[in-house]
């Protein structure tokens, strides 16, 4: 973009010519146009800086949310693991009880068969 203060000085020179009522050259018009462009660029740069700041703040908030969610997910996973272990232990205990009931039923069946045999004799 070059020397911005040089453009500002050139614009001031052209404005002085306008105040004095002098005729403007093509170069003078170009300098006025360049001055407006430089001004617009300054505003655009300021807007970009504000947007960058907003983006940085948003990214920080997102990072904080991700950390919080990660901790909560880890905590939830631990709770799920604990529940899975507890349920697995209960299922194992229930299976042992079912096995014991089946063994008892088989013994009762054998006793009934023996009882029927002894009655038939």
Using the CA coordinates, give the radius of gyration. Answer: 45 Å
Oligomer: single chain
Number of alpha- plus pi-helical segments = 2
Number of domains: 1
- Amino- and carboxy-terminal Cα gap: 120 Å
**Poorly predicted ranges:** none
Strand content: under 5%
Q: Helix- and strand-based class? A: mainly alpha
Question: Mean pLDDT across all residues, rounded?
Answer: 92
How many strand units? 0
Gross morphology: rod-shaped
The succession of helices and strands, N to C, reads HH
What does this structure look like?
This protein is an all-alpha fold. It has one domain. Helices cover 92% and strands 0% of the residues. The chain is rod-shaped, with a radius of gyration of 45 Å. The relative contact order is 0.04.
């Amino acid at each position: 973009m070059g020397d911005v203060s040089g453009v500002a000085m050139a614009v001031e020179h052209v404005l002085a010519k306008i105040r004095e009522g002098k005729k403007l050259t093509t170069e003078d018009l170009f300098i006025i146009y360049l001055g407006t462009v430089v001004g617009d660029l300054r505003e655009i740069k300021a807007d970009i800086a504000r947007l960058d700041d907003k983006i940085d703040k948003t990214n920080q908030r997102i990072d904080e949310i991700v950390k919080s969610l990660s901790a909560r997910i880890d905590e939830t996973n631990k709770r799920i693991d604990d529940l899975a272990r507890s349920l697995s232990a209960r299922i194992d205990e229930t299976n042992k009880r079912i096995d014991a009931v089946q063994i008892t039923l088989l013994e009762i069946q054998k006793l009934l068969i023996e009882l029927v045999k002894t009655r038939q004799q």
